[in-house]
Amino acid sequence: MGIRRWSGISVMAVIRVAVVLLLVAACLKIIQPFLGALIWSIIIAISAWPATTFLTERFGGRRKLAVGVIILTMLLALVAPITLMALSLADTLPQLTSMLHQLATSRLPAPPQWLAGIPLAGEPMVKFWISAQNDLPGLLEKVRPMLNQTVLWSLSNGARLGVSILEIVLAIIIAAAFLLNGEVAWLTAERTIVKLGGAPAEELPDVVARTIRSVMTGVVGTALVQTLLCVLGLVIAGVPGTLVLGFLCFMVAVAQLPTLVVWLPAAGWVFYTGETGYGIFLLAWGFLLVNTIDNFIKPILISHGANLPLALIFMGVIGGLIAWGVIGLFIGPTLLAVGYTLFQHWLAGRREEDRL
């Protein structure tokens, strides 16, 4: 009788677990198309919560108005530039192709004297300039296959920009719901984490929130500032395809790479067109402002953030871009940063237990 009861209880337990697993799998299958937008909305809500609290106090407790201001700002800051870039992409690629054709049938002037005076990079740049001057068509033929692949990749993935724009809009709308019910959402998250991890996990929500805000303000915020400055310099210098170059600059800045890989070739093009004054301006603007502003902004924005390895941020940007498209630029480094921080927190807890 006892064996039957034990056997019966075991079978029922297995059935209950199987039903729960099937339900979880079905729910994951349903939300899978929206998973990127959902994760991005959570990141937005956590990052924007301090601003929401501040504006709510300034607006006399009217949270809906505060959330509306934040959502409108995000739509203008994220959706509008990406939409304009997607619309201008089709016009920019033919312009670049025509520009390359014109370069192949022309000859570069002698390198300017001031170029050799640039510290460290001056001499290699002069040698490269002279090499291009002597055999510009040959140099372009070497890079043409790579440029063709880049153009084909851009065209094939251009359609994903539309999907990414919709995901960003959806994520901002969901984030608005989280911000309007911030206390309830936060309490639910705390209870869930404590339920899963027990009492030692009580401080994990705060750790995760600090890490997300650190990445979003320190890494993404700094990249946005650098991108705005870069785009402004490109517009003043009259460089075509400014929005596309600005998007590339943002990707490079988020990946913690030097932004000169974007604006330095643009400066070379300006010199080629004969606009020496604008070329000098763009070089000075890039070296003195765009390339150095992060040294001043990032310490301010990450005043209480985590010290994250550059390789982690770089892998998050590339992996996130491959996995989720444009919104992966934000999701990838943030998720890796959260995972890294939780791992460090777990190691610190294990060390304390070992001492005891």
UniProtKB/TrEMBL annotation:
<keyword id="KW-0813">Transport</keyword>
<dbReference type="GO" id="GO:0005886">
    <property type="term" value="C:plasma membrane"/>
</dbReference>
<dbReference type="InterPro" id="IPR002549">
    <property type="entry name" value="AI-2E-like"/>
</dbReference>
<keyword id="KW-0472">Membrane</keyword>
<feature type="transmembrane region" description="Helical">
    <location>
        <begin position="243"/>
        <end position="264"/>
    </location>
</feature>
<keyword id="KW-1133">Transmembrane helix</keyword>
<keyword id="KW-0812">Transmembrane</keyword>
<keyword id="KW-1003">Cell membrane</keyword>
<feature type="transmembrane region" description="Helical">
    <location>
        <begin position="269"/>
        <end position="290"/>
    </location>
</feature>
<feature type="transmembrane region" description="Helical">
    <location>
        <begin position="37"/>
        <end position="55"/>
    </location>
</feature>
<feature type="transmembrane region" description="Helical">
    <location>
        <begin position="161"/>
        <end position="181"/>
    </location>
</feature>
<dbReference type="Pfam" id="PF01594">
    <property type="entry name" value="AI-2E_transport"/>
</dbReference>
<feature type="transmembrane region" description="Helical">
    <location>
        <begin position="310"/>
        <end position="343"/>
    </location>
</feature>
<protein>
    <submittedName>
        <fullName>AI-2E family transporter</fullName>
    </submittedName>
</protein>
<feature type="transmembrane region" description="Helical">
    <location>
        <begin position="67"/>
        <end position="90"/>
    </location>
</feature>
<comment type="similarity">
    <text>Belongs to the autoinducer-2 exporter (AI-2E) (TC 2.A.86) family.</text>
</comment>
<feature type="transmembrane region" description="Helical">
    <location>
        <begin position="12"/>
        <end position="31"/>
    </location>
</feature>
